[in-house]
Amino acid sequence: MYDVIVVGARCAGAPTAMLLARKGYRVLLLDRATFPSDTISTLIIWQTGVAKLKRWGLLDKVVKSGCPSITRFTMDLGDFPLSGWGPPADGAAESYAPRRTVLDKVLVDAAVTAGAELRDECSVRELVVEDGRVVGICGTTKEGATFTEQARIAVGADGKHSVVARAGKAPAYSQHASRSCFYYTFWEDLPCDGYEVYWPEGKRYILKIPTNGNQVLVVVVWPHDEFTAFRADVERNYMATLGLAPELADSIGSARRISRILGTGDVPNFFRKPYGPGWALVGDTGYNKDPITAFGISDAFRDAELLAQALDAGLSGLQQLDQALEGYEQKRNAVAMPLYEHTLSVANYQPHSPKSFEVRAALRGNQVDTDRFFGAIASTVPRNEFFNRENIQRIFRQAATWAKDTAERG
Ligand SMILES: Cc1cc2nc3c(=O)[nH]c(=O)nc-3n(C[C@H](O)[C@H](O)[C@H](O)COP(=O)(O)OP(=O)(O)OC[C@H]3O[C@@H](n4cnc5c(N)ncnc54)[C@H](O)[C@@H]3O)c2cc1C
Hints:
This protein is an alpha+beta fold. It has 3 domains: 2-43 and 99-176 and 267-344, FAD/NAD(P)-binding domain; 180-264, D-Amino Acid Oxidase, Chain A, domain 2 (2-Layer Sandwich), CATH 3.30.9.40; 354-409, no CATH class. Helix content is 39%, strand content 25%. The protein has 14 helices and 21 strands. Strands 1, 2, 7, 8, 9, 10, 19 and 20 form an 8-stranded mixed beta sheet that branches. Strands 4, 5, 12, 13, 14, 15, 16 and 17 form an 8-stranded mixed beta sheet that branches. Strands 11-18-21 form a 3-stranded antiparallel beta sheet, with no helix packed on it. It starts with a strand and ends with a helix. The structure holds flavin-adenine dinucleotide (FAD). Flavin-adenine dinucleotide binds at residues 7-13, 30-33, 39-45, 123-124, 157-159, 163, 182, 264, 267, 283-285, 291, 294-298, 300.
């Protein structure tokens, strides 16, 4: 009998298991994968997520893996490249984009070191339910043997197509179909100055992200309604999209591609009620969104902390478990919903408004506000603190004053 069984051992499951094991709970952590192993992801961890790694004592391991820090963000919407970097979050000034083979292994090892029992290469098939309450899981080993384990609560951290969410009949809300498709591969000998985003000719996103081994992840993002067209010739469409950004196309010419192109159009947007009798959900299982704003990993870390706190309160008897889990859902949604709505609007693939180009032009040469602009993208500056009427008008006034002074000086 375990206190908690966690199904899924990546960004959401492993930290949840680690935090509960550190509090002395008996935790079983299951995954059908083995570690290290890769998964579809474009790797960015913003400062908010890095702050969690630091707090958990795991950031050093990511740094020691040879993952470069990111302290510069350049965004070129076809007008000009605007560069800056947002303020720190909880003492974390830098961002990182570790390979998932590195990050997920660090997280799983930390859970095991904390005392969680790891069973990899085990698939959970269904939940065991007694009197309407989940009391355990039923799984299969890679050799095909079936097993059953019992726990006071089963946590689904098994991704967006979760067995736990399905078995618990977790209601979904604020749902929207996939809006983007992502294709990427890794390059060597490609210059990359931090996180670079291009929106050439107002048609597609191209992202450049430095990762382990001096490699650069180059991602191409298309609207989901063109997914079938993209898939029809992945190689040609990927390379043709890079060709839309001439400065990138030049440097790609002398770089070396080191893996095949991977991608997906399976990026649905939803919230799920993250708890029920004997079960709870965390990470993509409970809340999934388009990766275009790159917050899945950081949000999974946050929700792992929130869920571990709620489970500790409920399992220790400090609070009714249901009440603690209701608080978990409320806290998650209060933080997640504004970002979710913003993410949906970015993944709308509408042309950027003339106003947004005016704001960018006004920020040119104003590094303090440019840094706060990038902070608003990385969620280290509240979006409504930057993107409010007074602040934007102040930036326009400042730009006008500087332009006048410059003209007067000749
Ligand atoms: C194209 C793309 C790009 C992305 N880019 C970024 C980015 O740049 N930055 C960012 O922060 N986020 C990004 N994300 C999102 C990020 O990858 C996810 O939010 C994150 O991986 C969620 O972690 P998780 O632990 O909830 O789920 P997952 O990473 O999906 O892990 C679920 C685990 O559960 C296991 N599992 C599933 N079913 C079972 C079962 N029945 N039995 C046993 N084990 C099971 C799986 O093997 C897997 O290991 C991206 C996502 C995609 C698709």
